[in-house]
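Quick bug: Major facilitator superfamily (MFS) profile domain-containing protein output formatted oddly.
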Amino acid sequence: MATMLAQTTTTSTHRQAQENMLELSIPLAPQGTNPLAQSEPELVSGHVSRLKKVAVVVQLSGVTFASSLSNGLVIVALPAITRDLELPSSLAFWPISVSGLATASTLLLAGSIADAVGPRGPDLVGCFANGALMIGCGLVQKGTELVALRALQGVGLAMHLACSVSITTSVLPQGKARNLAFSCLGLSQPLGFSFGLVLGGILVDTIGWRAGWFLAGGCTVLFATIGLWAIPQSTTNPNASNVIQDVKEKVDWVGAGLASTAMTLLCYLLAFQEVQFLSAIQASIRIVPGTILGVIVNLVTGFFVHKLPAFWIVTTGCILSSIAPLLMAVIQPSWPYWGNAFFAQLLQPISCNVLFTVGLIVITDIFPTDTQALAGAVFNTAAQFGSAIILAILQVISALVSKEKEGEESGTNAKMGGYRASFWAMLGLMISCITIGMIGLRKVGKVGLKKD
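Here's what came back:
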């Protein structure tokens, strides 16, 4: 009996030793990666110095900041641009809208290409192209030239936005550092836009609007040059034939083309017909409170997003922001700005800034490691396309209600009626966001946690 027990013990020990050796001999895939995607080119965060990690975040956020700055600049300078370039009324709004339209229409395609060839090359191409096109916008002599360059600028921005998410997830591991990087990417957009409004107003009244394009373009080229040094190469260096083969096989050209075409046509049909602008000083005063709070919310979200459940972060942010359109819907023209309008400006950026950080964290966790650029493209497409569609719908509502009231009330009251209708519609949309968020995120816990 003792002999049999000894043999059994020896056999079990030998089998266990074989299993242990087998486990040691098999390379395990990193946690959270797609085992089928190990052949994809990846960036290894452990091989990147801390200085380069900081430089990558600065470069990605800086290019986005400069692009948003140009959007704010063109809004403030549009009357002067229209006058100087003799832009026909049929194209008067296109310098503003065409860039966002081109970005939304090409993001998915840019993300798919970046996943196939690696994010470094497409990002640098998009950044340098963006800078050159901005400088070109300052040299144009015709309105049609400006519209064409702004459209191409939107394509370059799409390449950058899609690659930004992939580069960030490759360089920074999951945890607080990545959360803060996503927050920086988020705050660079409203901060750049607000800075563009203020700077544009100053330049238009002094040395001219063209200087703003030279400044934005020069900054973009500078940040792109930093990217040449900071953004690391892929761990694998496929030859040209392999890259071409990957682009042919891994990019859904038909699907991406159809999606881009559909969004282009739909945005075109819903394009704005007329826009009213405040003076530069008035616009600056009104957007400063929201800008400051938006920056604070982004940074706070980046620091604490991993400490609280995403459900409560998103729900609370949406509820607070839903108060903003309600305040504007009941406002009276005789009331001072520091009443309802001021508090509405403080509350309105909370939800979008919270959702940008949380949304990027969630979507990058869901997508495999070899499709992070596509993940960024999907998220940014939703943001760009949603903005274009909702703004167009709100303008249609405002225009229809104002036209309906023109025969009954004075011009100012008729316009105010249209604005009120738009704000009530915004309130309804925010309530829908709250409902969808509560249902869709009810089982989502803490996000952005560091994984060992």
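Actually, after a second look the formatting is fine. Residues 402 and 414 are 5 Å apart (CA to CA). Closing.
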